[in-house]
Amino acid sequence: MYVYALTDQRPPRQELLGTGMRRKPLSLIRAGKTYAVVELRDECEVTAAALVAHDRVVRRLSRLLPAVLPLRFGTVAEGTDAVKALIAPVGPSLERAFERVRGAVQFTLRVSGLPTSPPPPDPRLGPGTRWLATQAARHAIPELASFLDTTRPFARALRIERRDDAPGLANVYQLVARHDVRRWRAAFRRSLRELPSGVHVTMTGPWPAWSFAELT
Amino acid sequence: MSSRRRKRGLERAGSPAKGVLEGVDATLLDIVDHVLTKGIVLSGDVVLGVADVELVYLRLSAVLCAFDRVARSTPTVRRRNAAVDPAGRRAP
């Protein structure tokens, strides 16, 4: 069976789950406090249409349920017992992840432009500290300082991936509570005025919490 | 995406519980990034079924990588193979 997502709450009626990529009805498998949303099928083709369909199913689940953790595309398990065996060892981690994403959505930002040269480390520092400062500067994104300062009050969590494929600078993922979406969007628009010249940001969302569905 | 579409999505966001995930500015790039490289990866006995190939059984972890991640790791593998080859021949 194909596993789309995990949640910690049943919908009011199971038919609200709808159907999966193969138009078969979705169902729930309970494992402790967690429910896995599955479709009875055991194969998937990696096509653009399949990826879009997978995302569409997860998006629908995220509208229906307050805490949804998407699974990566292509996760298939051999029957109910296999699904339960997958979930059982990670129960505590899942509970933390459910609380992280509960009632929240993700915004994705693709940042491109010419990178700013980091300032040289303070020569008064020792060699080890200078090396650490240089390493830290390689991961910092000074081009986004104003954007991050402006939107941070409305973001529950933040993930930044530095890119090394110019002109790509970084991918930024922000987790925003649904009741803060309007304020986050307003802050985002304000932050665009502060962007350095030549830096471009493309924002999409809201998405299910794809980038925050990690087990810690 | 057009500014008109963004504006419509913003207006829908006014009723958060109902329509916050509607009117999204979705792109295939974002979908590929999210669906193939994000999301939970469950470790354990997992079967991956991809591209109509016979199901592959993985005991350790079910990780499906985006192509760019696989491609990025290839030179590393080649260098490592070359290093252990006393004749210095490049691995195929």
Task: Please describe what this structure looks like.
The complex is a heterodimer of chains A (216) and B (92). With 216 residues, chain A is α+β, with helices and mostly antiparallel strands. Chain A is 32% helix and 25% strand. Chain A is built from six helices and nine strands, in the order E-E-E-H-E-E-H-H-E-H-H-E-E-H-E. Chain A has helices at 48-64, 79-87, 91-101, 127-139, 145-151, 181-192; strands spanning 2-7, 27-31, 34-39, 68-70, 75-76, 104-112, 157-162, 168-177, 200-207. Chain A has a four-stranded antiparallel beta sheet with strand order 2-3-1-4, sandwiched between helices. Chain A has a four-stranded antiparallel beta sheet with strand order 7-8-6-9, covered by helices on one side. In chain A, a hairpin with a 2-residue loop joins strand 2 (27-31) and strand 3 (34-39). In chain A, helix 5 packs antiparallel against helix 6. The longest helix of chain A is centred in the first third of the chain and has 17 residues, at 48-64. The relative contact order of chain A is 0.17. The mean pLDDT of chain A is 88. At the A-B interface, helix 1, strand 5, helix 2, strand 6 and helix 6 of A face helix 3 and strand 1 of B.
Give the CA-based shape of chain A: elongated
List how many beta strands of chain A DSSP finds: 9
Largest sheet of chain B: 2 strands, antiparallel
Average pLDDT score of chain B: 49
Low-confidence segments of chain A, ≥5 residues, pLDDT <50?
Answer: none
Helix content of chain B: 40-55%
* Gyration radius of chain A, in Å: 20 Å
Distance between the termini of chain B: 44 Å
Structural class of chain A: alpha+beta
Q: How does the helix and strand content of chain B classify structurally?
A: mainly alpha
Instruction: Please report the distance between the alpha carbons of the first and last residues of chain A.
Output: 26 Å
